[in-house]
Specification:
The chain is of the alpha+beta class. It has 7 helices and 5 strands, in the order E-H-H-H-E-E-H-H-E-H-H-E. A 3-stranded antiparallel β-sheet has the order 4-1-5. Strands 2-3 form a two-stranded antiparallel ribbon.
Amino acid sequence: MATWHRPTVDTMFHIDYEWWQTSGRNFRLYLLEQLCDECKQRFATHRETETVDWVNPDTGEVIEADALLQCLKNMCAQQPDFIDPRVPLTAAVFRIFLLNDNTPLSSKELHKIITWKQPETLLSTLGGRTTYLGIRPV
């Protein structure tokens, strides 16, 4: 059994997809909720959106991709209010991990994007006993 260590502002966090499976919550449904209004209108449901042919608007290249994630990355993320102080903190962090392909980040690194919250505040939210949206230490 691994020894638990108290997270610090340098502890790396990510979305733990296994948490979504074991918690009984639907990751795809929550992902759908993160979309901007325009994208929500394009996708009536989160079903059958996992793999679609996506056309890169710059190159015309067709790739197989997740429709919800592609819409989030290419359209929603361009909205000025996609990650701002009005978005709940855990949702803002969740969106950041979605945008960066779940590359682990520390509270210090997250603070560079979520500038209105100090690294210690981010740490106290993410590193506490409650897991929010599957965001956990790596």
